[in-house]
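Batch job 17 of 40 flagged for manual review because the log was empty.
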Amino acid sequence: VSGHGLGPSLIMASVRAMLHVLTRTASEPDRIVELLAESIAPDLKQGQFISFLLVSLDPQTHAVRFANAGHAPALHLDATAASFRRLEATRLPLGFPRLLSGETDPQLSLAPGDLLVLGTDGCIEVTDAGGTMFGNDRLQQVVFAHRNRPATEIVAAVRDTVQQFHGRPLPPDDSTLVIIKRTSQPVATAGGCG
């Protein structure tokens, strides 16, 4: 939510409550975000917006569907190709008219070793003493360098690198990073006898 303080906090609480309801009535990320945008619009002040990313992961098929309302960073590391793909915006942030006609419910599949890197801008907008931002490129370099480690260790490596880059205590900004890693092939299950 753009802005700081009590107002944006209350709006985020409303968004969370609405999501609990909407995810019970719809399953497609794009549809959920569209309904959320319609529901929250009356509560947003002129010029206020919400960047938002909704990801649906099927643990059986490893299919990932998402709706991205102007949120970054959102990345897929393809372990086989050793390259990143951005989970591009499918719409503008909530609070803007739906002018962007991005791909509806884009889908990808996580292969063993693949990573999803999802975070808030607080992870990439941290600056060094000279005012240079940490940025997406550095984030990708750190994640790629540690891609063979468990997800929790990759998050720790990013946190440590951002802290070192910043050179002083990190600001109390919204800084969240989630890394999802597919670690193996599906396990075959045996059928029962009756």
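Reviewer: the log was empty due to a logging misconfiguration, but the result itself is present. The first strand starts at residue 52 and ends at 57. Unflagging and moving on to job 18.
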